[in-house]
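User: Could you go from structure to sequence for me? I need the amino acid at each position, not a summary. Structure tokens:
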């Protein structure tokens, strides 16, 4: 047991079933980042991590195929999300670096999607090379800035591609012309919502030159609002539950998953089904990682 951290204000992941291990002993490091600053429509994503962690107490340790918890799950201290966006981004990068220093896998719970830039910055600052990002999202998030904020959730993927990190987007169905130009400029791969959903695409083949290390970022709004209405900027026509997991698995089979996140979950008071779904999604993704190492 580690005693060097403040106790969490809510349960650690799967608290009902597993002990909070030491960070050096647990493969998965759940990092709660309740950041909400630039959201442009519905709010509440700052309550995402606490809702997911609380709901995780209802999970079964057996995920249907294996026991991902056997690899060890450590829930890190909550990242302090107050202050200037660029300072928050640095703290997120630091939390990511702390996990990578233990050679463990960050599983980051947002919070608005801006958080993912801090996570990728942590990887880059740690010296990780040959890293790409696969993104499920309703929005391209490729605006240079949004409402003059370069750390906006609508700009997060621009921050990433401009660092030279290759990107593959899945399920996008809301974008502007500027974002189309950015896609061309940076050679962003994509299968958009109007293709991937009607054609029931359950797996992708990454290009041969796509990096061997992949960080997978899952914006909850990439999934259909019938599955997750609990998000700030829902868009109809999104991915289904199994489709999302199958797409993730197809990536995990081809590349080394170095971490993943679940962003933009905004719990709706009184509708705990969505909290549980987000916790289960997190754990199912851990299972896919475990079985494809
Ligand atoms: Mn997004």
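Assistant: Here is the amino acid at each position, in order:
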């Amino acid at each position: 047991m580690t005693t060097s951290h403040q106790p969490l204000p809510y349960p650690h992941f799967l608290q009902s079933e597993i002990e909070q291990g030491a960070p050096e002993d647990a493969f998965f490091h759940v990092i709660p980042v309740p950041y909400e600053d630039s959201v442009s429509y519905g709010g509440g994503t700052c309550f995402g991590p606490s809702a997911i962690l609380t709901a995780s107490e209802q999970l079964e340790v057996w995920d249907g195929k294996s026991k991902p918890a056997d690899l060890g799950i450590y829930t890190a201290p909550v990242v302090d999300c107050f202050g200037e966006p660029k300072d928050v981004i640095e703290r997120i990068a630091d939390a990511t670096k702390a996990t990578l220093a233990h050679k463990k896998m960050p599983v980051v719970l947002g919070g608005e999607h801006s958080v993912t830039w801090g996570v990728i910055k942590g990887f880059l600052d740690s010296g990780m090379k040959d890293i790409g990002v696969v993104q499920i999202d309703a929005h391209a998030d490729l605006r240079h800035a949004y409402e003059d904020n370069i750390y906006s959730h609508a700009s997060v993927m621009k921050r990433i591609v401009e660092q030279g990190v290759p990107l593959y987007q899945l399920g996008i169905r809301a974008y502007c012309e500027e974002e189309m130009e950015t896609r061309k400029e940076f050679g962003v791969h994509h299968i958009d919502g109007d293709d991937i959903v009607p054609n029931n695409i359950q797996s992708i083949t990454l290009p041969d030159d796509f990096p061997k290390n992949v960080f997978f970022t899952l914006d909850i709004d990439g999934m259909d609002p019938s599955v997750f209405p609990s998000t700030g900027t829902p868009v109809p026509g999104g991915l289904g539950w199994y489709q999302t997991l199958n797409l993730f698995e197809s990536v995990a089979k081809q590349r080394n998953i170095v971490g993943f996140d679940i962003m933009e979950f905004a719990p709706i008071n009184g509708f705990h089904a969505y909290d549980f779904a987000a916790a289960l999604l997190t754990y199912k993704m851990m299972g896919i990682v475990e079985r494809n190492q």
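One structural detail worth keeping in mind: Residues 113, 137, 139, 141, 153, 219, 264 surround manganese (II) ion (CB under 6 Å).
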